[in-house]
Amino acid sequence: MKKKIAWLCFAAPILFGSQITTTYAATPSDEDKKFEAYREAMADFNPGDFWIEDGEKLFHEKRGPKNVSLDGCDLGLGPGVVKGAYAQLPRYFKDTNRVETLEGRLLGCMVHQQGFNEEEITKPYYASLAEENGTKSDLVELVAYVAAQSNGQPYRVKLENAAEKNAYEMGKYAFYHRMGSMDLACASCHATPGLVLRGVHLPVMTDPATAGKVMTAFPAYVIKDANVRTWFWRNERCLLAMRMPFLKVNSDLDVALHLFQVMEASKTDTPIAVPGIKPRA
Ligand code: HEC
């Protein structure tokens, strides 16, 4: 409830136009400048590195009712191959007949190969997504570890079959479509250059250079939450601001929005560099 009210306070002024401002001079806000200095100071130490270390252990450990590791999990490049896998996700998987994100694919392997109960993983995970909740989740540690094995590589997601093309089209539709009781689209906030909301410059996710910069920093350590947050979380937060229902990992909408935005990033050579570090998002 507290969370809902916080988002309402955040979102309500948009309706009355009092807080979205347009600045065409690309001057960073004072807050951005302060954060830049902080980011430099943190250059050699990102707390998110702990998530990667723990994720590596979890990946290779025999776990779950079936007592197997994730070395048999195919993330698109063959069972157990983690190097470069994140740079090519989301993609279509024949065995599930779905386009899947890294997070969704790992969740599927934990359920189908290791025998975990899906809800036992997702319930505490969804609870940990609340603001300022620093609870670590196995799933996020695993995502952080696998994603980091693509560090230095640019995204190279392709639309090679009908399922991937459909997911992309759905993502594009969802991005531009006004929805929820606020009647907002992602595009309302993320398709026009120069929008500022409460001192935060809104990234234009339809601009490949910006999408490249933003996407290659996820998963990221979010200082406000003292937790690592994934791409799923980012989309979830913004959907919540639009008063949409809670997003589910690997749902059609999750996959579609991810694919649409990562395709923009794939047009650039910006290398993946995770964990990113962010003040609040
Ligand atoms: C009401 C305006 C609004 C809408 C609508 C909105 N967002 Fe956002 N979005 C924001 C704000 C504000 C931030 C920055 C949050 C912060 O820095 O605290 C943000 C951050 C982001 C970021 C991360 C940028 C970064 O540098 O880390 C992405 C990606 C994003 N939104 C995608 C989306 C998508 C996808 C949708 C639609 C499902 C959406 N947003 C809808 C306001 C919005």
The computed structural class is mainly alpha
Strand content: 5-15%
Overall mean confidence score, pLDDT: 88
The global form is: globular
**Proportion of residues in helical segments:** 40-55%
The CATH topology is Cytochrome Bc1 Complex, Chain D, domain 2
Whole-number count of domains: 1
Which value, in Å, is the CA radius of gyration? 18 Å
> Could you tell me which ligands this complex binds, including any ions or cofactors?
heme C
Low-confidence parts lasting 5 or more residues at pLDDT below 50? 1-20
Structure notes:
This protein is mainly α. The protein has a single domain, classed as Cytochrome Bc1 Complex, Chain D, domain 2. Helices cover 44% and strands 8% of the residues. The protein contains eleven helices and eight strands. It has helices spanning 2-15, 30-41, 49-60, 102-112, 118-127, 138-148, 162-176, 186-190, 208-215, 231-241, 252-265, and strands at residues 20-22, 91-93, 98-100, 195-197, 200-201, 220-222, 227-229, 276-278. The protein has a three-stranded antiparallel sheet with strand order 1-4-5, with no helix packed on it. Strands 7-6-8 form a three-stranded mixed sheet. Strands 2-3 form a two-stranded antiparallel sheet. Helix 7 packs across helix 11. The two termini are 21 Å apart. The site of heme C (HEC) has 23 residues, from helix 1, helix 8 and helix 10.
